[in-house]
Amino acid sequence: MYTNYLPRCSIGLESPGNCGLTSFCTCQDPQILGRNTLEHITVNPDGAFTVDLVLGCGKKSEFALTDLHGLTKTVAKHKVEKAALVLEGLETDFIEGFLTGVLADLAVDNRFKKDGKHDYDLKDVLVFHSDKDVEHTEERSKVFASAMHLTKELVTSPPNYATTTSVANFLETHFKGLGLEFKVLEKDECERLGMGAYLAVSQGSAHPPKFLHATYKGEGPIKKKIAFVGKGIMFDAGGYNVKNATTLIHLMKFDMGGMATVFGAAEAIAKLKPKHVEVHFISATCENMVDANSYRPGDIVTASNGKTIEVINTDCEGRMTLADALCYADNLDVDMILDIATLTGTQIVALGQRYSGFYASNEEVADLFAKAAKLSGEFSWRMPLAKEYKAALKSGVADLANCNYRADAHAIFAALFLQEFVNKPWVHVDFAGPAFERSSGRGTGHHVRTLVNLVLALSGEQLSL
Q: Which domains does the chain have, with CATH numbers?
């Protein structure tokens, strides 16, 4: 079901002095400086180096990793077979991000088309830079790009292919091949652990719940332990608070974007092998469907920490599954927990399609995540865990309500709800906007690099964080 369509291109290092494009790096021609400007130029009089496509990036002082996506999309549009990247003077992490973007953005996934062929393949990338460790940078870039593509393929897969069982089987085989520990908790084990919130969501589906847990243990003494928890709703019909066409129900295959991101990061970490860290990758996967057995508005369920939840809205299912997944992670001997989810539509209203919103229980973990996101070129904005809104969580008949129609700031409400199920230092990431492209119907791989760079920082192996 999953096939890596990354460009099989070679990446080579050249001295900046060998590039006839060097003069363009210092030119002041506004047409060249303009972003995504296209020119067809023969650089050298003897024609030794012919350029078919030049992309202007604007002023160096104003250009950031977050601008790379548009550049690589332009390259793909023009189907360039050879790319020359003049990156002299840029930091190694920027070069790594650039190469990752080129490989990830140019990958073509045609698994579900008749011929199944990818219609474009970048063949060669020449990097003009004096960095002698380009081979290391190249390998890391390929690891990042492959991990992002795994995430994109999972998110893009239709729900009749990406079921709880098929994904669990694939990930178990894939990760055991990479040396990770992997276990699947079946329904009876989840019942034994008291996961009443998670299992309530799952009970209307023909596909059984599968609680997934992969573990990476680095070499040497373990200095830091972290758990990543991803929302894994394989398809979200909304339950009895059913979605409709105006809520883009056909796109609800993307509601497992958090799970896909967490396990994409797991692939990269397994390949990069950072030392002195232990990382847990967790997802409570299921579907939220409409059936005679579905949970109902008005039901009261008990999460695995003993707290009772009144179900006000069955379409607020992500926080229900995450509640038990966070309790599970909280019972592990970890120093920090991060959950990531396509959780609320109001997060998109607040920050749009490009930015995730993140919430943090303390400044240390907030700073760690913010720096990792910045280094990765992936937009995120800190949101408040506003205690002023906690009263909205109250239920007249249970410990908590999963929704409050009278409350404002529903994304903050959801974050405050999740905080009730975690005691460790914690970050919650709501990336309902950037997890997928609505125009193409495909996943983006957003925040895979952020999670990996965060782990590398904890291991002490990240260069610039």
A: 10-145 (3.40.220.10), 163-459 (3.40.630.10)
